């Protein structure tokens, strides 16, 4: 559990660091923009790798029985999650309206997976990501980097929906291979 918790703390801390505008600006001023972004990426990757390793090592002891409606809820919400994720990278009306579609997607992904999994490791993973994303949404108001830059275009919304649904389909089909859990059948 220590490895999972270490990865979660590292990953979440580096992603919350940009909310501390003065500290971020000072570090970026000292290192330069590209080295700062490289350091951010390296620390994120180390945290992510620790999360993956730690989740595999952590206890799968059940804390509660997953709710009966949770699995159908995951299947209902996850297409939206992928659409929101894709829309975060395009000048969509979705992004213009929601401002933080990636963080909203993370909240939804974490919440439905938390409801569908009652084990200790899943509770730490999905509960931690839910709290992180919710916190970051609340703190994001202090950052201008989260505000959409371009003019939204309907064609990008269509692209976000189509690509989001395609990615959802690929993840659904590959879920067993990627995460060790079959969600089809």
Number of strands: 0
Rg on CA atoms, Å: 18 Å
- Biggest sheet, in brief? none
Total number of helices: 8
Estimate nothing, just give the exact number of structural domains.
Answer: 2
- Helical residue percent band: over 70%
* Topology order in helix (H) and strand (E) letters: HHHHHHHH
Shape: globular
The class by helix and strand makeup works out as mainly alpha
Q: Spans of 5+ residues with little confidence (pLDDT < 50)? A: none
Oligomer: single chain
**Average pLDDT:** 92
Membrane topology: Multi-pass membrane protein
Domain NnrU: 3-182
Protein name: NnrU domain-containing protein
Transmembrane segments: 33-52, 73-90, 102-135, 156-175
Descriptive terms for the model:
8 helices; 185 residues; 0% strand; mainly alpha; single chain
Summarize the structure.
With 185 residues, this protein is mostly helical.
Map the helices and strands.
Blueprint (H helix, E strand, L loop, with lengths): L1 H15 L4 H11 L1 H25 L12 H18 L5 H6 L2 H16 L3 H20 L14 H26 L6
Helix pairs in contact: 1-3, 1-7, 2-3, 4-6, 4-8, 6-7
Pfam families: NnrU
Protein name: NnrU domain-containing protein
Membrane topology: Multi-pass membrane protein
Overview of this protein structure:
The two termini are 31 Å apart. The longest helix has 26 residues, at 154-179. With 185 residues, the protein is mainly α. 26% of the residues are buried. The chain is 74% helix and 0% strand. Helix 4 (70-87) packs antiparallel against helix 6 (101-116). The chain is built from eight helices and no strands. It has two domains: 1-58; 60-185. Its main location: membrane. It is a multi-pass membrane protein. Residues 3-182 form the NnrU domain. This is NnrU domain-containing protein.
